[in-house]
Specification:
The structure is a single chain. The chain is an alpha+beta fold. It has a single domain, classed as Sulfite Oxidase, Chain A, domain 2 (Alpha-Beta Complex). The chain has 10 helices and 12 strands. The strands form 2 sheets. Strands 3, 4, 7, 8, 9, 11 and 12 form a 7-stranded mixed β-sheet that branches. A 5-stranded mixed β-sheet has the order 2-1-10-5-6. Strand 1 and strand 2 form a beta hairpin. The radius of gyration is 19 Å and the shape is globular. The N terminus is likely disordered. It binds ligand MTE.
C-alpha cells in the first residue's frame, strides 16, 4: 500500500518543482499506467449520459459584492481560472474542465453529522436558499506557488455551523468530497486515498474569512471549480479549499487530509501560507500570478493576517505553515 501511495507523491509537487517538459513526460507515463488500471478495474465501462435535474438557484446570481475584502491586484480572467484547475478526481493535470462535466451536481445532498444536536441531510438548493449569498474577491495561493484572484459567491461557513447546531464537544470540522468513480476517472486510481477530505478547527471554521462557495464570476460554479459547493480559505494553501462537498462532520479528533495522508512530510493539517517556510522541495517566497506572467512576493497568511493571525496565538510549537 505504501509503495502504491508513494507513486502519487510526484503528482501535486512536481508540477512546481520540475521543469515543465520533464514533468509532462512523467505525467504521460503515469497517465498511461492509470489508463491501464482503469481498463482492468472497470472493463468496458464508460459513463453513460446521466440525467441532471436543473439548478433551482439561478435567480440568486449575481449576488451583491461584500466590499470588506479589497484586493491589491486584478481579478484573474474567468476563462484563465476556469481552464487551470486542480481537481484530482478528474485527473492530475490542470485541464480537467471537460472531464469534470461528467459530474452530476443535481440532485445533490449534503450530510451534516457527528457531534451535532441532530444529524441531517439537506438538498443543495434548499441549503443555498437558507443562507443568503454574497460575492467576495479573494486571493488564492496554491502550494505549487501559483496564485489567482477570484470573485467567489457564497456564504460564511459560520452561518452553516450555526444552522448545523454542533455540540460543545465538537473541536474540528471534517469535510468530504463525493465518491463516484464512474463519473470521476481519477477515483479509479486506487492508490489515492479517496474520497478527498479536509479539516479545520472550529475556531478556523468560524473565522469571518472561511467561505462556502456556490458560484464564481457571478454565476453558479462550473464543475471544474468544485460545484455545487466548495470551500475558500484564502489564508491557507489551496489544497485546504475542498471541492464538491457531500458531507460535513463535527468531530473531536483532528481529521487527516487527503494530501497529508499521501505525503505527511510535505503537507500538514494547518497549511497556512508563509513565504519563509519552504516546501521541502521548493521555495514558497514568490508566486506566479496566473495570466500576468509576473512573479510577486508571497505574503504571510496570503495577506490576511489581520483577520487570522490571532487564531494561532499559543500554537507556535505546531507545524503551522506546511
Ligand atoms: N478538492 C478536491 N475534491 N480535489 C482536489 O484535487 N485540489 C485542491 C483544492 N480542492 C482539490 C480540491 C487544490 S491543490 C487547489 S490549488 C484548489 O482546489 C484549486 O482550486 P481551483 O481549481 O478552483 O483553482
Amino acid at each position: 500500500m505504501v509503495g502504491i501511495v508513494r507513486r502519487a507523491d510526484w503528482a501535486l509537487p512536481e508540477s512546481a518543482a520540475t521543469p515543465e517538459h520533464l514533468f509532462l513526460n512523467r505525467r504521460t507515463l503515469v497517465a498511461g499506467l492509470s489508463g491501464m488500471i482503469a481498463a482492468t478495474a472497470l472493463p468496458g465501462s464508460m459513463p453513460a449520459a446521466r440525467a441532471q435535474a436543473s439548478d433551482q438557484t439561478l435567480d440568486l446570481y449575481p449576488a451583491k459584492l461584500n466590499d470588506a475584502y479589497p484586493l491589491d491586484r486584478a481579478v484573474t480572467p474567468a476563462d484563465v481560472a476556469g481552464q487551470y484547475n486542480n481537481f484530482y478526481e478528474f485527473g492530475s493535470h490542470k485541464q480537467i474542465a471537460g472531464a469534470a462535466r461528467s459530474l452530476k451536481t443535481r440532485p445533490w445532498t449534503v450530510r451534516i453529522d457527528g457531534l451535532v444536536e441532530s444529524e441531517r441531510e439537506i438538498g443543495i438548493d434548499e441549503l443555498i436558499r437558507a443562507m443568503s449569498l454574497e460575492e467576495r474577491l479573494y486571493r488564492h495561493r496554491c502550494v505549487e506557488a501559483w496564485s489567482m484572484t477570484v470573485p467567489w459567491t457564497g456564504f460564511p461557513l459560520a452561518r452553516l455551523i450555526d444552522y448545523a447546531a454542533p455540540l460543545s464537544s465538537a473541536k474540528y470540522l471534517r469535510l468530504e468530497t463525493f465518491m463516484d468513480p464512474e463519473a470521476a476517472s481519477g477515483q479509479r486510481q486506487v492508490w489515492y486515498p479517496w474520497p478527498y477530505v479536509e479539516g479545520l478547527t472550529m475556531a478556523e471554521a468560524r473565522n469571518e474569512l472561511a467561505f462556502m462557495v456556490t458560484g464564481v464570476y457571478g454565476k453558479p460554479l462550473e464543475n471544474q471549480f468544485g460545484a455545487p459547493l466548495r470551500l475558500a480559505l484564502p489564508w491557507k494553501y489551496g489544497f485546504k479549499s475542498i471541492k464538491s462537498i457531500v458531507r460535513i462532520s463535527f468531530v473531536d479528533e483532528r481529521p487527516m487530509g487527503f494530501w497529508e495522508q499521501i505525503a505527511p512530510s510535505e503537507y500538514g493539517f494547518w497549511a497556512n501560507v508563509n513565504p519563509q517556510v519552504p516546501h521541502p522541495r521548493w521555495s514558497q517566497a514568490q508566486e506566479r500570478v496566473l495570466h500576468t506572467g509576473e512573479s510577486v512576493p508571497t505574503l504571510l497568511f496570503n495577506g490576511y493576517g489581520e483577520q487570522v493571525a490571532g487564531l494561532y496565538a499559543g500554537l507556535e510549537g505546531e507545524k503551522l505553515y506546511s
